[in-house]
């Protein structure tokens, strides 16, 4: 609930079936959530509402006995407020999971998806996009990419196909 400032380590102990967590905007500290006993939370989605990135338990570089690599390493997506995306993306605590950050909310002035070409996957052609965020009135490209959900055509070989504008 709103007002909660800290989530202790192992708060979701034995919650291996957990798939989604939404933290309130008041959260400032998150403990180790994934290595929660014998049931590791995998492929889950997290939504952070705070405009200031909370402190998150340090990434654990070694594999623990039950097969996890760290607090957020098994997450599929970490949703962060669009207007705070830059703060999260540039935050040192998030360096191990930058590629799974996703902005939500009104994004036009602070973050945007830009077409970066097409990609061939198993004979189907998809549009590929890269995420950019605004810093000092300049758009900065991230290392975050997404592929559209439906095929835009067919292709006969596995290769990245780029579109070229104006030529």
Per-chain topology:
Elements: E1 6-7, E2 20-23, E3 29-30, E4 44-48, E5 55-56, E6 75-81, H1 85-89, E7 101-104, E8 111-121, E9 124-135, E10 138-147, E11 153-154, E12 160-161
Parallel strand pairs: 1-3, 2-4, 3-5, 4-6, 6-7
Antiparallel strand pairs: 8-9, 8-12, 9-10, 9-11
Describe this structure in words.
This protein is an all-beta fold and 167 residues long. Helix content is 3%, strand content 38%. Strands 8, 9, 10, 11 and 12 form a five-stranded antiparallel sheet that branches. Strands 2-4-6-7 form a four-stranded parallel sheet. A three-stranded parallel sheet has the order 1-3-5, with no helix packed on it. Strand 8 and strand 9 (124-135) form a beta hairpin. The radius of gyration is 18 Å and the shape is globular. Mean pLDDT is 80; it is low at 61-70.
How much β-strand is present in the residues?
35-45%
Gyration radius from CA atoms, angstroms: 18 Å
The succession of helices and strands, N to C, reads EEEEEEHEEEEEE
Total strands: the figure is 12
| Mean of pLDDT | 80
- Low-confidence blocks of residues: 61-70
Summarize this structure briefly:
The protein has 167 residues and is mainly β. 3% of the residues lie in helices and 38% in strands. The strands form 3 sheets. Strands 8, 9, 10, 11 and 12 form a 5-stranded antiparallel sheet that branches. A 4-stranded parallel sheet has the order 2-4-6-7.
Which key phrases capture this entry?
globular, 4-stranded parallel β-sheet, single chain, 5-stranded antiparallel β-sheet, 167 residues, mainly beta
